[in-house]
Amino acid sequence: MRRIKTVLAIAAFGAALSLNAPSALAQGGMAAEPVQIDASTRTSLAKDIEAAKAAHPEAFEAVKNVQGHKPEVYQKARNPIPVVGRELRRLGPSALLPMLEALAFEAPARGGATDQEWTALTVGMLEAVGVQTERGFVKVDADLRSTVPHIFAIGDVAGPPMLAHKAMHEGVQVVEHLAGRPTHPVDATFIPNCTYCQPQVASIGMTEAKAREAGYSVKVSQFPFVGVGKSVAIGETEGWVKIVSDARYGEILGATIVGPEATELIHELVLARTAELTADELVGMVHAHPTLSEAIHEAALGVDGLPLHI
Fold this sequence. Notes:
Elements: H1 22-25, H2 39-55, H3 57-61, H4 72-76, H5 85-101, H6 114-128, E1 133-134, E2 137-138, H7 164-178, E3 193-195, E4 200-205, H8 208-213, E5 218-224, H9 229-234, E6 240-246, E7 252-259, H10 262-274, H11 279-283, H12 294-302
Antiparallel strand pairs: 1-2, 3-4, 4-7, 5-6, 6-7
């Protein structure tokens, strides 16, 4: 396996942390917008980061961030940027960096604002043709139609969360509307937030703190992957599944997964949250053994204090 010497990431969101191979993570760094996770998860991840720093100090010394930007980079952005893989390889890093400078920005408050910079430019152009904005985003109705009837807005320009899968779903919604078909509107509270780091992190809905702030009486369950046979078998036992549920009705309000394949496993809880399932209804679902998804089953059992394997 070739040693990775340099890693350059141009992104503004948690998905930028796509270096989930330990060898790559140990040899490069990037800036990304912090993921919205609860305090206990953040504390645990901070410990993991400190351990990684101790094991690979050279990697953290090598992290470089592009600070600020200059007006002339917008002129550079007009230059054609090759999109074919073989052409990128032919040009090499030295030829590509001047092009990438036009797209690589970092806003100190956000940690990496490439998408936000281009969103600002797009919104500015739309304002020029009469599209109304609100807090820096295009103002849209339930059908994602702007204040100019023939202009629709999806993705970052339509407001947070600034996620590719949210934008894609909104695009489908607009096409459904234009075709006269039943639409599937996006509900931001049901959108999974995924970070492709090591360990992976994924969440849906409210954190425990947010649920309490919203006035819910909550039950919380957290089950570690070390209690799952598949995790032990593949040697990935770090992390856990955490479920926050409404103590009165049992509805799942939110969930966080830290650990192996978290960004895949979260979709069972996305479905549960979307369908307003209770933790008890998740308990009634048979999970194959041995699978990582058994951690979700155990966490659901733990809502009533009844986990089997801990």
